[in-house]
From TrEMBL:
SMART domains: HTH_ARAC (SM00342)
Highest taxon in the source lineage: Bacteria
Entry protein name: AraC family transcriptional regulator, transcriptional activator of pobA
InterPro entries given in the database record: Homeodomain-like_sf, HTH_AraC, RmlC-like_jellyroll, RmlC_Cupin_sf
Coiled coil: none
GO molecular function: DNA-binding transcription factor activity; sequence-specific DNA binding
Keywords: DNA-binding, Transcription, Transcription regulation
A Pfam family this chain is assigned to: HTH_18
Species per Swiss-Prot/TrEMBL record: Sphingobacterium lactis
HTH araC/xylS-type domain ranges (all copies): 188-286
Length: 289
């Protein structure tokens, strides 16, 4: 607790921001070296913080546990929110400590006030189109802060735009997650339909029609969830079922082929080898040992 108390006191001395000092910026690397890259759990009563990290990685500790983050990423921390960090020594970025009163008055505006500004947020931006814009805005903020006649309106606008990008990225991530849940459910439905007709499988278009979606959309969601197209999934389910017959029945390979409505045993053998890597005969022999 000693280290925690000292950190709070030091932080209060350095960031006891007045309204005229509405934002304080620090380089992450210089700041983290002061704390040996390890900032223990603490809260801020009158300060909102925004971390814009462009290199390295770190572990964020919150009441929900520990989260490893890899650059580039942003962390937004509201007032009275328990948090701590352990950064890798190759990490770098900028930290903005913002006067809470100023923040509520100037930055907590729609659409941000009802979405991201009430809770701690973190989001990584690998391969994200939003990061380039955030990096540009962050550079503009640094330029404004270095000007002895820094413009409060310009800084407010730039900070708002960074937070807006965080909001959009969060919304995009949530939408992607919701879509993936929906797609997963649809693919599971598709698989159930295939299994229900496994001895006489239909065309992809027919399954799509029964699901009230297009075959193009069915292929798209299969790729999204399974990284395979719909026909590949049909073939895999079909071959899995034929394996059961090869293992647990006395049917010949030819009889199994006709049972599952293959054109002929040769067609069955080709597809089986393509999916399973061996012929039906070899598979059956291997399971008999």
């Amino acid at each position: 607790m000693g280290k925690f108390s000292n950190y709070k006191e030091l932080h209060r001395d350095r960031f006891g921001l007045q309204q005229k000092d509405f934002v304080h910026a620090e380089n992450l690397a210089r700041r983290s070296k002061f704390y040996s890259w390890d900032v223990q759990n603490h809260t801020h009563k009158d300060i909102v913080q925004l971390f814009v990290i462009w290199s390295g990685s770190g572990i964020l500790t919150t009441t929900n546990g520990r989260k490893e983050l890899h650059a580039p990423f942003i962390v937004f921390i509201p007032t009275n929110t328990l948090h701590g960090f352990r950064f890798k020594e190759d990490s770098d970025g900028d930290l903005y400590s913002i006067n809470a009163s100023f923040f509520e008055k100037e930055l907590a505006q729609p659409p941000l006030n009802d979405h991201i500004l009430k809770n701690l947020r973190h989001i990584e931006f690998q391969d994200s189109p939003h990061w380039q814009e955030i990096h540009f805005l962050n550079s503009r903020i640094q330029t404004e802060l270095s000007d002895i006649n820094k413009n409060q309106q310009a800084l407010t606008a730039l900070l708002f735009l960074i937070l807006l990008q965080l909001y959009r990225s969060t919304e995009s991530t949530n939408k992607t997650s919701e879509n993936l849940d929906q797609y997963t459910s649809q693919v599971q439905h598709f698989k159930r339909l295939v299994r229900s007709t496994i001895k006489n499988v239909s065309r992809v278009q027919d399954y799509a029609s029964r699901m009230d979606i297009s075959h193009v959309h069915l292929n798209r969601i299969c790729h999204q969830v399974e990284h395979k197209n719909a026909l590949q999934i049909i073939h895999e389910l079909l071959i899995e079922e034929t394996k059961e017959y090869l293992i647990n029945s006395n049917f010949t390979i030819a009889e199994i082929a006709y049972l599952f409505h293959f054109k002929n045993p040769a067609h069955f053998t080709r597809l089986f080898k393509k999916i399973a890597g061996v012929t039906p005969k070899t598979f059956k022999q291997n399971t008999e040992h």
